[in-house]
Structures
1.
Amino acid sequence: MNTKPKLGPLQIWNMCFGFLGIQIGFDLQNGNVSRIFQTLGAEIDALPILWIAAPLTGLLGQPVIGFLSDRTWTPLGRRRPFFLVGALLASASLILMPNAPTLWIAAGVLWIMDAALNITMEPTRALVGDNLPDEQRTSGYAMQSFFIGAGAVLAGILPWALAQMGVANTAPAGVVPQTVHIAFYVGGATLLLAVLWSIVTTREYSPEQLAAFEAARQAARGARAPSAVLQRSPGAFLSGGLIWLAAGAALAAFIVAARLEPRPAILAVLGEAEFRQDLYVLAGLIAGFGVLQILAGWLRARNATQNGFMEVVGDLFAMPAAMRQLAVVQFFTWFGLFAMWIYGAPAIALHHYGSTDAASAAYQDAGNWWGVLGAVRNGVAALGALGLIILASRLNRRWLHAACLALGSAGFIAMILIRDPTWLWAPMIGVGIAWAAIVSVPYAILAGSVPATKMGVYMGIFNIFIVVPQLVAATLLGFLLRTFFGNEAIWAFAIAGVSFGIAALAVLLVREAPGDEAPETARA
């Protein structure tokens, strides 16, 4: 049997069920960590830099996890060992987070939590690419999207529901309320049980079976055997690295000059714009990419290429064209999402509830309502995922994704215009539809564009285009709000809306692999 068989609905359900728990973990993090940080004394414009642990962990860890899982084969399989380790660590972190006694311990727990969730998540995405044939991949990722939405609904509504049951939703200054404590404990247990269910009920194909499936797939398409990838030369690595290193150094020098008191006369045009230390992170990212290329060039010049670092870097620079085009879409999409996650709760608290005091009842009510709005958003995403399964058989995936992103953009703008918090559920419908597409359609496009033997590493590299915009957001959003929007968190929704609009236009420029452009039924 050289053709990868289709899986039944129950098999796809079981394979994706672990995402229910993974997303409960992510959404408890996304919906409550800013609230915990502020409870422990964080100022509003310090939130982005405190959040930097999450994307930085993904940037460093995901390609490595993907690379390792591509080369793993154990009695438990290829991807499932990573599910298990990540789930155990993430569950423990969820229990620790609301008990963090200080702000910086909470930031450290966030780092561990996000690393653990990433260890579990990306191999789970790769498993869908491993186990499903081309014609079922959009349906598989849409099923993951359904569980992402369902998990996020449960996570979003938990603190609010606990408050309705009489659990204390306020606490003394510097203490996290019991509603958040119990929500995190329930989330940790649910995450572990859901992932264990997928581990027990799902089988994996061996590396030899996957190789045979890939050969048959390429033969059916009339494709030639993949030729050797033209490797980037040491000189190209060196010259590119020096350019990026110089750009990072120049930005750092500019920030230093802009922070001088008084500023040099040549920078008088900056007016009262405030440049804080968190902007150095952006300069460091740019310079760091340059250092990475210089190191790769040095290793290649010495023919020291038989190592994981050079394989991941080589795959990064040799990625398929569709993946490079999707990178632009992902950048603007996740920049907008990170703006929502960082500033959503404080934006609603000030703009709709009139409070900035994290110890006040109004602020905690706003935090709970933001959780409910997240549940609405993700409930729509869960239902929208089922709709995507149907629409994927009838519509071009690029146009489908663009339409969903446009609805999300409109939803973000409406969050600013609607003043009665009771009606904020309406724009969340548009954001929820966009979210259903974000966590499914790009992965379906990607899975058809990369070789099966590198599914894990390319899923990890693809995650770079999720975490880099989050890192950029973590360093730039505070500056943008201080400089142009009077440090009012509500305008983060405007930034998110514009970002989604750009992403919707960019996805129309993506060119899928031959044979993958048509709706799924046309390829079945």
2.
Amino acid sequence: MLTRLACFRAAPFLLLACSSTEPLSIKPPTLVEAGDIWSAKPAADPVAETAPTADQPPPVQPEPEPVAEEPPWAFDQKGDRIGSISFRTWIWSEPMRSRDHLAIGSLRVGTSVKLKSKDPVPGQGCNNKWYAIEPHGFICSDVTTTLKFDSPYWKALAMLRPGKGAYPYQYAFSMGAPMYSRIPTRAEQASAERDMGKTNRFYSLGKWSEGHERLVTTKEEEGFKADGKGIPEFYDGTKGIEGSPWNPVMPKVKVIPAGSGFAYARAFEAEGRLWLLTPDLFLVPADRVWPYKTSDFKGVELDDEHTLPLAWVKPVAGKEKLRKEGERYAAAEGRFDGRKPVYLTGSNQRIGKIVYWETKDGAFIADDDDVSVVLPQKELKFKIKEDERWLQASILGGTMTAFIGLKPIYTTMWSPGLGGVPVKGNNPKKFATTELGIFPIQWKDKVELMSPDPGAPTVFWFADVPWIQYVHPPMAMHVSYWHEDFGYPMSAECLNTSAADGQWLFNFTLPKLPEDWGSVGAGRQNGPSTKIHIIP
């Protein structure tokens, strides 16, 4: 069975995280009342795009001329920009930083944003200069920032920005592995790992870690392989990267704790070993970690033909089809596909505790523990408007649906807290339950570390978790790249989604992430937030 890690405080500006199967994360620095390559433009709204009609075919586009690919940092050198070189750089609504003044967003390390002007503006609470950025907000040019984009260290960071798609990186599970700031010599490796045990070993770390091991693969054919690009150009033998904050004399900086997960952007061979390069420029030996498989699970977009009501079949093995024989239901030929929706006519019959639903293909399906039925909404509540975007998530059903007013747009399965439906008066974190209620989204991180550790994470973490949305901090909706048991309770409190669903929901909800920002908070210049209604 799965055990749980509660949601705890963690790193700078309050890192929080949730996990049973999940870690924890950053508490959004702003709270409101209800109401690709990183430098690419913001992702398209999933419901804003329109396709050509049948009598209006898409125009034929000429073949583009081949263009020489620019290095990632070339983008930063075009125009006046400011970049982040440390953890994250906060964005403020005014050029002022104080205890009662909260950030409205942030930049991710290794990324930059356009300045409104290269001239600084007056402000308070910054030991250096304030700059106005696009589309709004201000950044203090403190030690986390740079205005120069030609250093080897910046170029190295820029090359490891999150990629396009639902999975911005590849991911791995640690059995306890060193993190080096440069390529270590063989002698340095032997010295640094003297007490770390044998390599190429995998074993379950115990019940507390079972949820984190769900997608680990030990198959040789699915193992790590060099990406064929050779040693990154910013490494000069076993020397450190020029401009790196780490002491090159001691290459081993820290250890990824056993049971933790991390991201990597490159895989290459050097000094007799295969190395995985993390987005924050650490090298991890591949023989002390194991790869995570990716999940291809994704919900479905709805239209006039494919709409509610529908039934999600939760087991991978699928569900038997039924036929009606008088007043009873018997097995029919065939099965409904697992982890897929079955569209219903709306006609149903209850016999005892089971409700039998007629499907649009003429069969029947039993609404039992293997099935979750999603019904249309008959009325709007909580002052939700007819054109307003909102989400509804069911704990017992393990389903989530996106609406605009009463119109269903998208539906999927997710994993709630292991504790099931919360009991009034019980602490949801202590009992690992996802809270009930109507909540506005408070803060969104495109990619961020999550950890239950107070302060800088040292005991346990999951790095570079994508598509995080804080609902009622520390409770968040986020991707779980370590499991795909959606539809079933798995978390400590948070709402676990697949990578594809996480990306779709992130792009659907408000506030939208401004171009080149890494995080955004609701309210003020960023506008209102989408509400999520969590029901039993």
3.
Amino acid sequence: MSVKSRKKESDINLSSQEKLEIKRKKKKKKTALIIVFSILTVILIFIVIIVIGARRAMKSMMGGTVTLESVSRGELISDVTISGNVESEKTIHYTAPDAILIDDIKGSGSFVKKGEPILLFDEDSFNTSLRLALLKSQSSESSYEGSVARNKDNENKYYEAAGRYKKYTQLVNDQQAVVDQLEKDVTDASAHWTAALNTQLSISNNELSDYQFKNKEMYSKVTAFMYTPTAEETEWLKNYEDYVYKKQAEISNISRQIQEQSSSAAAYDNQKKVSEANALLAEYKAEKNAAESEMKSYKASIASEYDKKSLEISGEMQSIQNENYYDSIEMFSEGLIAPFDGVVTSAAYTKDDTTVAGTPLVTFSSLDDVHVTIGVTKTDLENLKEGQKAKIKILGNTYNGEVKSINHMVTQTGNSSLVMVTVSIDDPDDNIYLGIDAKCTITLATLSGCIRIPVESVNIDNTGEFVYTMDPKTMIVGKKYVETGVSGDFYIEIKSGLEEGDLIISTYTGTITEGMPAMVSPESVSLLTAGN
């Protein structure tokens, strides 16, 4: 008989009361199990809440996770990188010396080696210009020498006229004394002579002489052979002859009256002497006046000492200018030859053009001496000095150089104020092109064996710059104020405040403050062990 059959048989033998009691016990057992399970669930939830709260509290007390670094000594390089353009140290601007036909010329951008022609002039056109320059110089020199000679001739003639003027002035004075004495003798010898007639005769003679002298040139002109005077000149001649005729008549009349009044041969003889003396006096006066006129004329033509000096300077200046003009053409006798390896940076003319004197011809820049010009802001300028070393990158190539010069004037570029700095390039090669972009990295300072820490580990507050530190035994965050120095891309110099071997916090997550514990990143745990 199976077990199942026996169980059914047993159930049949139980009474109803027994069956009810068995059901009641089973239900009670099930309720107890439910209560125990509920109690255990509540206890488990309570434990989880406590653990989470504890973790949060611990995390709040620990602050954050930090990365440590041990303070050490090492090399520190501070530099700045600025872009600029390649320029030539040596650029020559050539000017057209004259109007000359161009036979051949290198175009802008052409590379020309030292000793090779940049430009060639047409031979015939060039020789013509050179010949004209020589003739101009000779003509100018002859003109100057002619001016000097004419001035010297005028000086000689002036001194000659001055000598005659002095001579006839003395003769006039002496003859006047003779005339005065003769007239006095005549008066004394012939008391009945009329003094007024003698005086009038002398005056008339003098007036006639002076009049004829003053009008001598005009009279000679209008009465010259084969000369046809104008109507005005004819009228003038008529008036002149009328005046002379009347004055001569007047003199004759006075003389006649004197003769008539003379009562003796002695008086007549004395009067004749007076007339002869007056005639000689008039002649001397005419010579004196002529000499004075010549003096004035030549004096006006003679250069003063200032003018002579000015003439001499002008002549010398003109000579130099002519010589320079000739040389400026003659220097192109073999064409324009490149004085160094370089590039034609501009060419104002092409083949078969005729140049215009004084206009730009060719600009030629050296490739042997080149530099980079960069614009530097005020911030970078504070640390720049002439002589600082630099690395220059051009088209993937790196060259050595140094800061050659710093301009002392600000250049306004858009909204920026820049100071232009020249960085020389050592040993340039064929891979350098004028005007191309270049990146200059200038070494501002290089320190060896200095105490240094990562740049990002330095903080700042109202007191100054500081770093966070950590005590390896207590894991407590500390704070030390420091004095910084030279700063590089990754490290900064510490002049005071830290010692070699100190543990500092270089980076951290979350929030940390002085006096709180902090969690150390796994990669920094070894530093804690080394510290202990």
